[in-house]
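Title: Prediction job returns without error message
Component: structure pipeline
Severity: low
Priority: P3
Assignee: unassigned

Description:
Job completed but the reporter wants confirmation the result is attached to the right record. Sequence as submitted:
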Amino acid sequence: MSVPASKKKAAKKAAKKQPKKAVKNASIRQRSIVVREDEVPYRIKTSATKESLRFIDLFCGIGGFRIAFEKAGGKCVFSSDWDKFSQQTYEANFGERPHGDIHTVAVADIPKHDILCGGFPCQPFSIAGVSKKNSLGRLHGFDDVKQGNLFFSIADIIDYHQPAAFVLENVKNLKSHDKGRTFDVIYRTLTKALGYTVYTKVIDAKSVVPQHRERIFIVGFREWRDFEFPEFPKEGPLLGSILESRPDPKYTLTDHLWRYLQNYAAKHKAAGNGFGFGLVSKQDTTRTLSARYHKDGSEILIAQTGKNPRRLTPRECARLMGYPDDFKVIVSDTQAYRQFGNSVVVPVVERIAEAVITALRRPSEQKVDLVLRDEKKPREIRTPQARLHTSIQYPPKKRSRIK
């Protein structure tokens, strides 16, 4: 029985579509997939994706970074902090307990992420921390074995995961510590070794909370992006806006402690030093809240009519750092003071988070509009001309792995 010519023609056509070396082609396809996975780091799918960008929260403390980046639309996929009391507060507010010491976590076990956030410990670089360590004959900066080398843990994670961006925070003194050498090492590691474009700015939180608190923020992008730190109001809130109407009397200083602080201030004033207590009213902005506030509260004392001044309550400290009133404070006053004194100011990070995520959602080569402001008129004139950045550092084409 003969096969019709039409069927022969169809069979021949179908045979041509079949690869002659199917096994070899399959092997090539498999090998090409492996190569792509090895060479291409984890990336956001598109610059305009509506999916939540994944971030990790290193040295997370009580979650200031997390509140800010979640509000900006991010999704936290990993958190870490060594302090057990901070872990308790974090878990009470976010429903998960952070991993412990970052040194105990394998870099490969950290989930893939788009943004790395980290307020690495500031004590080795802060003015107060350095002064204390010098007086005790202890090492500070990168020589502080316990905390000084934690920046390099961050660098290792960035080197391995190559996130699209990172946001780091530290004390203002980081830039001048060790005559600028400390910051130079950090900057060169992020730009030269890791190949990121880096932007830095010292921001005073007094424009969003009634506290004079200067911190340096370091923002980096794996691919070059036109980025500008957000603007902040010129005038911020006053202390009266965050004070409780009926604070517990236990926060009022005893006669003994108040007399001691007054004598201490008088002694240093006579010696020509600037040490002393900070007495403020409802119409003022406070000094920087420190982690040692639990000791005597001397840097921020609230004046009271007809009685001794008082400390801030833990809830007032939370407000001073920009935390919402539904934020749970479950630890002792001592631990709460330490936690808020070590925290970031949430509204500051919120604005930075929004700016970073906005930059990541734009195509990498797109430049933002130039904004010309008329100081006499509260309006903006926008032009498509690209802004000029004097601080932009263009990364090298090839990255060298950290050794």
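Comment from assignee: result matches the submitted record. The first strand starts at residue 54 and ends at 58.
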